[in-house]
User: What shape does this take?
Amino acid sequence: MSRDARFNQAMRRQQAAVQARIAQAPEERSLLLLLTGDGKGKTTSGFGMLWRALGYGQNVAVVQFIKGTQASGEELFLRQRHPGIPFFQMGTGFTWDTQNFAADQAAARRTWAQAAQLLQQSDLDFLLLDELTYMLAYRFLEEDAVLTALRERSPRLSVVITGRGGGSALRELCDTVSEVKNLKHAFDAGLKARQGIDY
Ligand code: ATP
Ligand code: MG
Assistant: This one.
């Protein structure tokens, strides 16, 4: 068989396989996604989907549960170029440095109240809950309440959650779960976090 014929045969098989899978997935509804793991690419993937949704004129919002000491490019871009898009960050600036359980928990709860409201907003299409998993891991938020709010969200709203861990119940509830695995990170070789890449 010629190279062209082999290629065409492989593509025909691929096409048939894809069409068969599409035929087996007839249901359409909003989705819950979890981007987890110890590698780089969770938050940026969440924002990637947000840009995608924006491309179709969808209504989007962001809640960030951990605010770094430094503004990120995505924050600057949204606040400066799309000031109408709801963008909330943990108020008192929870970072790894505050180390005050009561204050951090209060901040987490205030921030969650914003998220809970957005989860009920009937005209919202896409919500990014960035670094939410840590709020569960530190027990700042009650897992049952969070899972219930996610499950009972407005029907057309898709939600992307990022952060390491998150627990098996959250994983169970989500429709798509991706683990970003760290194979190598520049930081480990002593390379400084870079503007436009890391923040
Ligand atoms: P990004 O925001 O770049 O998509 P992320 O959301 O997957 O990263 P986080 O755990 O939220 O990762 O950490 C954010 C910051 O930490 C980024 O600057 C990122 O480059 C860095 N980072 C992510 N993974 C690692 C790692 N395995 N080792 C060192 N630094 C990391
Ligand atoms: Mg992140």
In short: The mean pLDDT is 93.
